[in-house]
Write a structure and sequence with these properties.
about 280 residues; alpha/beta; 434 Repressor (Amino-terminal Domain); Endonuclease, Chain A; 2 domains; six-stranded mixed beta sheet
Length: about 280
C-alpha cells in the first residue's frame, strides 16, 4: 500500500482523502476491502486517499454506502463542497439563487447557455476542456451533471419565467459533430414552445444596437428583488445593488425590443438546422 502522510489542511481533496483513510482504518479494512465494498479498484481508492485523484459524485456515494454514512456528514456533501470550490468564484452562489428565481433573463455570446444545453452539447464542451488539460475527466463528467441539475429549474412548480436572448454566434459556432448541433438547435426550438419561456436571437446585423457586449443574467426573486450575474476570466460577480442592476434590466428590455420576435428567431434557428442559407 502506497501510504502518504497527508495534511488534511493542505486542500479539500487532502481532507477528503485523510477522512476516507481514517474511517477505513478504524474499521480495520484494507484498501482492497473498501474497494470491494465500493465496487472500485484498490488503485482508485489509494489514489483518492493520497490525493492523486479527485473524488467524484459516484465514488462519494459508493463510499457512503460502504461505510453506512447518512445525514449531514456524508462524503457526498464533502464532494459537493470540493466541486463548488473548483468552480469559478461566485458561480455556486449564483446557481443557488438561479434555482429559486421567479424570473430569469439571460443574454449569451458564443455558446448555448447551460440552461438550454443538451447533454451531448455540454459533454463536448467539457471534453474539450479536458483535452486542453484544464480539468480531469472526472471533473468534466461532473460539469455535465451540474448542467442537468440546473435545468431542473425549468420543470419545478411553479416554473420560472425565462427570457433568453442568444447572440447569433451561439448558433453559428459549431460544437461537436453536425448531429450534436442539430439536436441542440432542436432543443432551442422546443424551449421556445414552453409556456414559461421567450427565446430570441440577436443577429449580427443588430450591430451597435446591441446593448451588451458580454453575457449577462438578471434574476428576479420571489420577493421581487433583483440581482445580476456576469463573469470575467477569473471570477463571477453577483450584483445585488439595485443602482447597478436596474440599468442592466432597462438595457435588457431594449435588447428584446431590438431583437427579432420569438417567431422570427425560431425561423432563423430552423433554417440553420435544415442547413438552408
Amino acid at each position: 500500500m502506497n501510504k502518504n502522510e497527508l495534511n488534511p489542511d493542505a486542500s479539500p481533496e487532502a481532507a477528503y482523502g485523510a477522512r476516507l483513510r481514517s474511517l477505513r482504518e478504524a474499521r480495520g479494512w484494507t484498501q482492497e476491502d473498501l474497494a470491494a465494498r465500493a465496487e472500485y479498484s484498490s488503485v482508485h481508492v489509494s489514489a483518492v486517499e493520497n490525493g492523486r485523484k479527485p473524488p467524484t459524485l459516484r465514488f462519494s456515494r459508493s463510499a457512503d454506502r460502504a461505510f453506512g454514512i447518512e445525514g449531514e456528514d456524508t462524503f457526498e456533501r464533502q464532494f459537493r463542497e470540493i466541486r463548488h470550490g473548483s468552480l469559478l468564484e461566485g458561480f455556486p452562489e449564483f446557481v443557488d439563487h438561479e434555482g429559486r428565481a421567479a424570473e430569469i433573463r439571460l443574454y449569451e455570446v458564443g455558446v448555448i447557455p447551460g440552461l438550454l444545453q443538451t447533454p451531448d452539447y455540454a459533454a463536448v464542451l467539457a471534453d474539450s476542456t479536458v483535452k486542453r488539460g484544464t480539468i480531469a475527466t472526472e471533473q468534466a463528467e461532473e460539469r455535465v451533471t451540474l448542467v442537468a441539475e440546473r435545468q431542473t429549474a425549468l420543470v419545478r412548480t411553479p416554473p420560472p419565467l425565462i427570457s433568453a436572448v442568444l447572440d447569433e454566434s451561439c448558433l453559428r459556432r459549431p460544437v461537436g459533430e453536425p448531429a450534436v448541433m442539430n439536436a441542440q438547435l432542436e432543443r432551442l426550438i422546443e424551449f421556445a414552445e414552453l409556456p414559461n419561456t421567450v427565446l430570441q436571437v440577436a443577429p449580427f446585423s443588430m450591430g451597435a444596437r446591441r446593448p451588451f457586449d458580454l453575457p449577462v443574467t438578471i434574476l428576479t426573486m420571489s420577493d421581487r428583488s433583483l440581482m445580476s450575474y456576469a463573469e470575467s476570466a477569473q471570477r463571477g460577480h453577483l450584483e445585488r445593488d439595485g443602482r447597478f442592476v436596474l440599468p442592466m434590466l432597462a438595457a435588457y428590455h431594449q435588447l428584446q425590443a431590438e431583437a427579432p420576435s420569438q417567431a422570427q428567431s425560431v425561423a432563423i434557428i430552423s433554417q440553420l438546422r435544415k442547413g438552408t442559407p
